[in-house]
Amino acid sequence: MPAQYPHLVAWISSSQEALLKAVVKEAKLKLVAVGSTNKDDAIALSTSLNVECCDDIRTMTSKYEDALFLIGEAGAYEQSICELLRKRAKPTITLTPLSGEIDLLMNEAGKPPAAKFVPLMRRSIGFGQILDETDQFGMPAAAHCTVLCGPHEGTLWSRLFDAMDFVDHYIGTPDLVHAFHSGGDIPDEPNNLRGHMTVQLRFGDQRCATLFLSDQSSWKREVLVLSIDHSVKVDDGDVSLASLIAAGFSEQQTEHTADAPRILALCEAARLSCLTGNSEQPSKVLGMFQ
């Protein structure tokens, strides 16, 4: 009898077809339906992948509630579908941060996340190594995070979200954020952010951190932390992005869930800094969530 693989449905952009195939293979899943905001792309994807086509994400959310759900298209994980996602029988994985007006995002503060953001640096093996080193050598004085991907693997906003989540949970909330962007104008919709970004972070206890981010490269995540007379550098090794996403469907990977509204507030401080050219105080944005 053929193996019975768990069912999966996916909402992706046309450029993510190869990534989706790799995830399905890595996680040993059976893809049954695919959708995209662009209806022509949805039809083309379903034909190419030989699965059902869906052109409405709300319909996909409820119709296939007994299937695992992967949201890959930038901006598709909207606050407006959160309650529908919470009612699903199977988990939802998202490659894109929660999207919506900031007053709507405030409504999500304190609620269980409707979807699980992957890949998250804090779930990596390397992060566990950093925690072990911290237990032995103490908190670092400085840290540097490199988080890169290709255009089909995510957005600059996604990479900023992952890096900010790491910094906030490991070092703390920065007092000041000063960010610089290269790659065109800063869009009104954060999920449309593309290009390269550097971010300088200052903390109240004289610690500092820097972020080097891009969605115009190839997949790479690396963290360097420095303490007195000691340093440690970790990365994902040879683990592919598809493998990291596939691991997100594992029940053993349920811990370390990102607090999306809070982390998005920190990311917004960086986006504002790119617009103003000045340092921004995350506390001013975070205050909206109190």
Name the overall outline: globular
Strand content: 15-25%
| Helix-residue proportion | 25-40%
Radius of gyration: 19 Å
What is the number of beta strands? 12
Order of H and E elements = EHEHEHEHEHEHEHEEEEEHHH
Question: What is the spatial order of strands in the main beta sheet?
Answer: 3-2-1-4-5-6
- Give the low-confidence spans: none
Count every helix, treating DSSP H or I runs of 4 or more residues as helices. Answer: 10
What summary fits the major beta sheet? 6 strands, parallel
Mean pLDDT: 91
Distance between the termini: 55 Å
Structural class: alpha/beta
Write structural notes for this entry.
With 290 residues, this protein is an alpha/beta fold. 33% of the residues lie in helices and 22% in strands. The protein has ten helices and twelve strands. The chain has helices spanning 17-27, 39-49, 57-63, 82-86, 102-105, 125-137, 156-170, 241-247, 260-276, 282-286, and strands at 7-11, 30-35, 52-54, 68-71, 92-94, 116-117, 142-148, 176-182, 196-202, 208-214, 220-227, 230-235. It has a six-stranded parallel beta sheet. Strand 11 (220-227) and strand 12 (230-235) form a beta hairpin. Helix 7 (156-170) packs across helix 9 (260-276). The protein is globular, with a radius of gyration of 19 Å. The mean pLDDT is 91.
